[in-house]
Design a protein that fits this description.
The chain has two domains: about 200 residues, 3-Layer(aba) Sandwich (Rossmann fold); about 90 residues, Rossmann fold (3-Layer(aba) Sandwich), CATH 3.40.50. By secondary structure, it is an alpha/beta fold. Pfam families: PALP (PF00291).
Length: about 300
């Protein structure tokens, strides 16, 4: 669904420019994944899919479960052990079968692929053109609402958000910098950008579990090498602090994966022109609660 576009007075004043928040946290499933997953599920439903198979660390699985329930198509989601119980509960509430397997998304994904057949269609959480088409509509809505961005700030996990926003900007003939933010423990894109190779991390660590892809999709890496992408990394503490600041300032609870993006504004890590319109994708996250954030505070203080 179309989400609100809000000018943040607090963040605009703090960064001496116009900060526009695209509130993807307002999606029914709590994250931008509803756009990407919604697009691909509808496409495959039109092609006769009888079942959806997916793997996820949280948000993508919740959206596949939601879309399957809406389309009356059975869903199986394989999640790694790092997935929160809240995320699993949300998938099951949408009548999805949830299988917990492996220590990382890669392990979960390998099992999910073994279930795929001619009628049970695999829904990749971040690597498919249908997904990017869905995300690109974010830029359509921003333009419709009268804002032409001079820069975009977003978080990167597997790369579908970066891929879709890049496509949306191209659709409108916009060539503006995209600031791609990761936590230090999940920096698969930033590491690949520095190496100039599409490499895979040995491991991913930290509290931003929904960013925990060891390797971004090839399309996201290509974009990072051929377009104006600026890579940034933040600490878990910075991401977590931004979650609490955003809750105070905008009455919206987001997960650390989204806090990573917001932290570069709260900590004023980028300089913008005073007239700049900076679009921030508040990607949201349904697999987090206040108690979990408070637990992170305790854990990081040890």
């Amino acid at each position: 669904m179309k989400t609100p576009l809000i000018r943040s007075k607090k963040l605009s004043d703090l960064n001496s420019c116009n900060i526009w928040l695209k509130m993807e946290s307002a999606q029914v499933t709590g994250s931008f994944k509803e756009r990407s997953i919604g697009q691909v599920c509808q496409k495959y439903a039109q092609q006769g899919a009888k079942k959806f198979i997916s793997s996820s660390g949280g948000n993508a699985g919740i959206s596949v479960a939601y879309m399957g329930n809406m389309l009356k198509i059975p869903v199986t989601v394989v999640v790694p052990k790092t997935t929160s119980q809240q995320a699993i509960d949300l998938m099951q509430q949408e009548n999805a079968e949830v299988i917990v397997h492996g220590d990382s998304w890669v392990d979960a994904n390998d099992l999910a692929l073994s279930f795929v057949n001619s009628e049970a269609i695999y829904i990749h959480p971040f690597d498919h053109p249908y997904l990017w088409e869905g995300v690109a509509k974010i830029i359509d809505e921003v333009i419709e609402d009268g804002v032409q961005p001079d820069a975009v700030i977003l978080s990167v996990g597997g790369g579908s958000l970066l891929s879709g926003i890049s496509q949306g900007l191209k659709n409108h003939g916009l060539d503006v910098p995209i600031y791609a933010v990761e936590t230090q423990g999940t920096a698969s894109l930033n590491t690949a950008m520095k190496a100039k190779q599409h490499i895979q991390l040995d491991q991913v660590t930290g509290i931003a579990t929904t960013l925990a892809a060891k390797q971004v999709c090839a399309n996201a890496f290509h974009i990072s090498q051929s377009e104006h992408v600026v890579g940034l990394t933040v600490s878990d503490q910075e991401a977590l602090s931004a979650c609490f600041n955003f809750l105070d300032d905008h009455r919206t609870l987001v997960e650390p994966a989204c806090g990573a993006t917001l932290s570069v504004l709260y900590d004023q890590k980028i300089d913008f022109e005073p007239t700049a319109n900076v679009l921030v994708i508040v990607c949201g996250g349904a697999s987090i609660g206040l108690q979990k954030l408070l637990q992170f505070v305790e854990d990081l203080a040890v």
